[in-house]
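Objective 1.3, modelling of assemblies. Example input:
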Amino acid sequence: MATDTNKLTWVRLRQSVAKESGIAQKDVALFLSCMIDQMTVTMQKGESIRISGLGTFYVQDMAPRKSVNVKTGESIIIQGYHKPGFTMERSTAENMNYVHNELTPMSDPIRKLNDQADEILNILADMGQGPQKVDSTEETPTPTAEETTQIPTEPTQIPEEPTVEQPSNETQPAEKEIELLPIDDIQSPPVKKEFHPWMTAGITMSVFCLLLIGGYLFLQHKIEVWANHLQEKVGQEITVSPSLTDEISFNEEIEEETTTIDNLATSTESIPDNTANATQVSSEEETTPHVNPQGEYTEFIATEILAKDSRLAWVAKKHYGEKKFWVYIYDANRDQLTNPSVILPGTRLRIPKLSKEQMDLTNPDTQRSIKEMEDNFLNRTSN
Amino acid sequence: MTTKELINNIAEKTGMTKKQVEQLMTATTKVINTSLQEDHSVQLQNFGTLEPKERRARQVTNPKTGEKSVTRAKRVVSFRANNKLKTIVK
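Predicted structure (tokens):
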């Protein structure tokens, strides 16, 4: 592509955009330069830009790696850097390959049909019979069985009369065009394409409805059970009995409804156990923060405002030079973050100052503590 | 950053209306797309070039089952960043 004479240069892009939109070239130039400015500014921040209808420009984080100087044989460390990248959108990918597909027929059976048709045409031309016979083949392009049976019997004639082949080539082009028409009809399957979205939409809609109904019933039941528990705790045992009977009748209704919601019914039956466990779990959660004594940080190096697509690990790498230390940042900012993998852009993170022991990755104790913290945080969120 | 935000920012900076900017945005994407489709690369000043490229069919193995299959040949768009952009992003 280096010698692309029809390359869409900056000037030609401006001209064609002006033509397309009907806006003066001056304004178009202003718009384009501003767009590029904005894009570079956002990429400088390390954010990605999604342009609908084209694709996404993003910044890739390249880790430092070891390499060898080819001339001297010395080992060098290539420092990490950020690399701009681009992925095309699905629509562009399809557009790009649409033309391509037409140029080379992709599906094998159709290509075979095409080849067979060509062969038959050759053979017929060799036999010295003109377009009258060709019409007969045109009528039967679809039943492949007939064609396949014809081929093995007749190709033997080709080697016998090799000299007659040349005139046959002259008659071919016009016949080929006629022959190709029905094949084109087979090639385009628009009916299938139209079918799929409706089918999938219908299925997803029905599944969604079922889920909604299930969720509603589940929630209602859970709230009832919860209310019962509260009442039991208070000690008002008399008021519990009517709600319990309600519950039983509720279960019966579910069983009567349909067989498809059987799973839901079983889940609702198992709820009382879960809620009983829930109280235990909550008590466990209260104890977990006290497990790590490192949760207290007094000195802070800096504050970082989270960008949109940022990760805790990236912030850790920026400040400490090591991704693993994200646990400390999370630990110091627990009041703002509830889940290490869910990050709200715009939150102010305080970056704690770490002691040498905490930064020492060669020490097995620190390694273990980091791993424990990581497990602890990730497990808690999974519950 | 999404297209919407980009449009808002540009409208703010240039003083054009949002509608106008949106119109220009769709026109640019259309022009770029058609050019790429016709196998011509697109140059974006101070940013980089978008190039159409051929990707050959190649044999791949499914790591789970160990099955071997052949991918289809296809065309992709590759982005080559300008040196200016590279140094800015670095």
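The longest strand of chain A covers residues 55-62.
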